[in-house]
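call fold(seq) -> tokens
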Amino acid sequence: MMMKTHAALSVAVTSFAMGTADPVTLAIAAGASQLPDVDTSTSLVGRALFPLSRFLENRFAHRTISHSFVATVAVALLALPLRWAWAGAGAIYWRALVYGFFFGWFGDVFTKSGVAAFYPFTAARLVIPRNPRLRLSTGTKGEYLVFALFVCLIIVSAHLNTAGGLMRAFGNLMGQPESAVTLFQKEGARHQVLATIEGRNAATGQRVEMAGVEVVEVEGESLIVREPGGALYQVGAASFCPQCQIQAERIRARTGKPITTEAQELRFDNREIKDVLAALPTAPGSSVTLSGDLVLKGAQALVAPQSLQRFNAVTLSGSENTAERKAKLRAASVDDLAKLADCYGSGNLLIKVVKYGGK
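ret:
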């Protein structure tokens, strides 16, 4: 078999068997798939490990000792220190290496001459299938067809093991806004999601380019993003979000540092808002966002200016100078709620606390 067919077979089987699309894990499997050919100095791995390949070449026939169950057990034992080399990941990498090595030589079972899989018993060679006409020859159209099949299996496995991540990655590469929405829905509770946005300001028509802004919420098919200074914007494609302040042409999103997200609900009735503020959780290095609906009393002097160019985290309804008004909070900060501190009222708040660094 060709090198790339060995690699494709090992990667496909490892991906399915381990349920992973991790590139490091699959790269280890691909690299290990080449190791059985160390028994010949003309192979790539043989040239890289020339002293070893020359030693094996002078003493053993090709596709014997290094293409056997004995060799697989030896590699598994020699690689055992790998299990403890990385916390948590060592066992995964060890399995990938063993899978890669085993299926690296097992692929040659389907070739014309097969392999001495039961070495040191070389009299019997393992060859599949029994009909010689159905066996593969290196570099033929049949092998290229098999290679293409393995590549397709890798794509299918990666797509399944990332819950549609390949399509999301392609959409993100193309800058499709919905891909950023999907990424936040999948990863937003465990990682920061940062976005690079190209588009236009809906109010002025001016060109907008934003890099590294944090996604804090999803609103339908749009994102609510926060600049480092704290300003919020609703961003989305014009066809899906005509009310967005930024009409996005491209949004490329990526995950950032790990976070932990905690959510709790706070219901209150006829309480002063400053008492509600005092009940909010606080933690150094964290961010608190508030969403919900309030009925405010004593709101005669309350003013909440509305911006046409930024997302309004607090919107008021009801006539000004009236004692009772309604307030809607969406991705609001503690400072936004503090502007209502002179009122009292009733309502229901969803409090989301994001702690950065995963602690």
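The chain has a mean pLDDT of 86.
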